[in-house]
Amino acid sequence: MSYSNNFTTTTSFERGDITVSSSGQDPNQWCRELIRERTKNTNVIPHFYRQVLQYMISKLGTLSYLNSETKLVPVKCIHANPERAIAKLKQETNIILPIISINQNSSNNADDRRRGAAQIVNKTFWSELKKRAVRVVSEAPRAVDVDFGINVWCKYKADIDQLVEQIRLLFNPHLIVKNEYTDVAQAYIESENDESTFEAADRKERIVRRSFKIKLEGYIPNPQFIITSTGEIEEFNLEASIYEKK
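The structure assignment produced for this chain is given below.
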């Protein structure tokens, strides 16, 4: 991307034209002005939390165990907090165990990983439409720590041991959580607890439970834009989902 010391840039948006004038302006400042003006006229929601949760559900949904007949049985993963999962186990008799549940507990700012708001992040992206690499720019993302709870529910300890082993291998030493914006978010196991305190009534089988506390170190992205050498700015929409073969 080339810049001149003196320029007047007119950029077309959906809601009218915006003119950015400069006399020897810093290129980063020029980018920030374009991005901020364009952000005022857009309604881009990154859906960071939803995409992270969907990815972790898809990864946990790849686990399986060997039953008493040495057959490999896949295990379903659902989104539910422990209270809801226990209620469903008590009320519904058609739930097949083992089953894995995951829920988001909390989210906090990660100030030790934050960047200054004025920083511009840029990267290149290959455009199949233009048949060339384009430069994508945005303001710095917001660093956050997200806590998740993973619960494994089984009838037998032998089954839960198999699933615990696979979860520990999945987070060895961390799980890279991918979405359409980034593949640098990392999830770690912070703690593991035996929660097998659910007492079964007469004629009902006891349920054993193992819980994991997961910490995700991620970044909520700001809207991304393509800025051309002529000063035009385009909203960067990458509509894609991450799927991995099981």
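Interim note for the steering committee: The chain has a mean pLDDT of 77. The domain at 48-220 is CATH 3.30.2000.40 (STM4215-like).
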